[in-house]
Each structure stands twice: as C-alpha cells, then as structure tokens.
Amino acid sequence: MLTFPQNLKYHEKHMWVREDGTTGVTDFAQKFLGEILEVRVKPVGTTVIRGNPIGEIESFKLISDLISPVSGAIIKVNEEALRKPTIINEEPYGKGWIAVIEMSNPKELDELLTSSQYEKLTQEYSSPNLW
C-alpha cells in the first residue's frame, strides 16, 4: 500500500519536502521505478531552483531527473543513499531521503501539493508517465 505522509509537501514530479528542507523521492515513484540502482545529486553548496534537476535517479526501467521541490542551496546530501540506493526503496520517507535544501523562499511550500492532493494525482496515472 502506498503512503502519503501528511506532514510533507509534494511536487508533481514525485518529490517530497519537509519544512526543514529535507527532500526525497515519493513512495509512489520508488514503487514505479522498482529497484533503484544509482542516485546522483549535485554537490553541497549548489544553488537549485524549484522545478529544476538536483540530480538523477536510475533503475532498471529508466534514468530520470530528480526535480527540486523548492529553491535554495543544497546544504546536505544523503551519502548513505548514494552508497546504497536501495535504501530509497526501503524507506523513501525515512533513511532514503536525498538532500537537504536551505530554502531561499519558504513560501514556495505553500505552492506544493498536500498529501491528499498528491494521492489524487497518483490515482490519475492509469499507465504512468511519471517523469
């Protein structure tokens, strides 16, 4: 069963973000991707813009951009997820986080989807074209 934690905000490109700027791939996306083989993330200190890539994720199915849900600077990268990317499959909202972004405009959170809005979005995918 898919999970959509209510304490998170969601980008329509299947990324989540917490109020502290921690971001990752949604449960829906990791299940669609299957076993994640590799994650590449821009280095700490990189400035990112909401809606633009912060890295890439690779599975047997595809290689896709990881889209930043907010603007700011990457202040931390989850080295464990880079070394062991299947942790994203195991705990997409826990140990499988991707990066922490120091938000330049925290009001961008208000423009993201709530858990119920994101859940509804995922139900619209009959044959997902996620990315």
Sheet/helix structural class: alpha+beta
Mean pLDDT over all positions: 94
Oligomer: single chain
Helix content: 10-25%
Shape call: globular
**In the CATH classification, which architecture applies?**
Beta Barrel
Distance between the termini: 21 Å
Q: Measured on Cα atoms, how large is the radius of gyration?
A: 13 Å
Give the name of the CATH superfamily.
RNA polymerase II/Efflux pump adaptor protein, barrel-sandwich hybrid domain
**Proportion of residues in extended strands:** 25-35%
- How many beta strands in the DSSP annotation? 9
CATH fold-level label: OB fold (Dihydrolipoamide Acetyltransferase, E2P)
* Main sheet strand line-up: 1-2-3-9-8-5
Low-confidence stretches: none
Largest sheet: 6 strands, antiparallel
Notes on the protein architecture:
- The protein is α+β, with helices and mostly antiparallel strands and 131 residues long.
- It has one domain (11-123): RNA polymerase II/Efflux pump adaptor protein, barrel-sandwich hybrid domain (OB fold (Dihydrolipoamide Acetyltransferase, E2P)).
- It has helices at 27-33, 79-83, 86-90, 115-123; strands at 9-11, 15-17, 22-25, 36-41, 47-48, 53-59, 63-67, 72-77, 99-103.
- The strands form 2 sheets. A 6-stranded antiparallel β-sheet has the order 1-2-3-9-8-5. Strands 4-6-7 form a 3-stranded antiparallel β-sheet.
- The longest helix is centred in the C-terminal third of the chain and has 9 residues, at 115-123.
- It starts with 8 loop residues before the first strand and ends in an 8-residue tail after the last helix.
